Amino acid sequence: MPATRRTVVTTLAAAALTGAVGAPAHAATAGSGGGQSRPAPLRRAHAHNDYLHEHPLHDALSHGFTSVEADIFLVDGELLVAHEPAELDPSRTLRSLYLDPLLARVRANHGSVYRGHRRPFQLLIDIKTDGVAAYLELDRQLRHYRRMLSGCFHGHIRLGAVTPVISGDRSARAPMEAQRVRYAFYDGRLDDLAAGDPAPASFVPLISGNWTHSFSWLGSDEFPAAQRQKLHTLVTTAHSRSQRVRFWATPDLPGPARDAVWHELLAAGVDHVNTDDLAGLEHFLRRYDG
């Protein structure tokens, strides 16, 4: 039960994925112009549970992140952002924390989240409960922002400044697959890579998995050769289908173990590195890519 409160291109995943009105002053560094220094976007940086930071979205943007995650609950016809039901706050809506600030920023930056950066920014939306009802309301809301969003139109992809990808409650898949026109895409699982008739990247551009369900290695010793080969095979399979890969539940405490895992993820070609430590991942990626 619900809680009580432009040109058609090839598949979305084949394209590299990568301020707001009233935005806090620090957000200016993230790309709304005015002569402020702006971080180069980090195409592999994903902010896990982004809404738990002091300034949702803006903190991630100030560190150059190109993907953020928001968990949502459907409450009295509104989509509220929170990790648990006890944390629900009517003022913290998907529109107020993410959709409206992103729209204002895209307008200010002449069509992109980061000025001059044309790869879409990923908004991963994790539906916590009531997948069908929550997705239908989300679809209704996204249509008000369609000019900035990537979309799928009768099987053809149009890239926009922002690409919503739906994760979480798996029951959202059915209503999404039934749509001929939609402004969101689906977050698949590792099982989808083994499917005999896999969904196309135009529907499932992203494959996500829990690291600890597939790998026992947590970075404190040598990466077992068999596990390294498994990781590379998973990523190669996904990339052969124009799908991107992300793992959650990877080590995230600062230190050699986390760095070791992050090095292996990047070496294998994993597309999105998951973290709660925005500054830590930014420092690592800029050093790694530098």
TrEMBL record:
InterPro entries: AIM6_PI-PLC-like_dom (IPR039559), HAT_RTT109-like (IPR051236), PLC-like_Pdiesterase_TIM-brl (IPR017946), TAT_signal (IPR006311). Residues 1-27 form the signal peptide. Pfam families: GDPD_2. Keywords: Signal. The keyword Signal applies. This is Altered inheritance of mitochondria protein 6. It comes from Streptomyces peucetius.
